[in-house]
Amino acid sequence: MKNQYIQNQKGITLIELLAAITILAIIIIPVFQLLGYSYSSYIDDLRKVKAISLAQKYMEEAKIDSKMAGVYTDESYKTQVEVSKNNQSKLDQIKVSVYWQNIDPNQRLTFLMTEVRDPK
Known about the structure:
Blueprint: H1 2-8, H2 14-64, E1 70-74, E2 77-86, E3 91-100, E4 108-117
Antiparallel strand pairs: 1-2, 2-3, 3-4
InterPro entries: N_methyl_site (IPR012902)
Subcellular location: Cell surface
Main location: other
């Protein structure tokens, strides 16, 4: 009678439950790691797009006014504008570097450099 009760019992054992949890963990953990990596890459890309946009903005302003050299802070970014004159070629070299202040203020995110004709 006791033997018949065990054979008719339906359900899962603790071993089966542990095996199922282990298989799910093997599948789910890498998926969450991939999602975390994707999100951090997305945030980095947004930061770089903003830095390039700021560099372009200051580059265009420096093309108009060559006396604009200096360091500017904008939100979480530090932008450094350098203007150097070349008297032989009558070109001004403009270099704009953008840094992210909150993470590593010495790590440059992007920079743009161009030469423009001196209007004089």
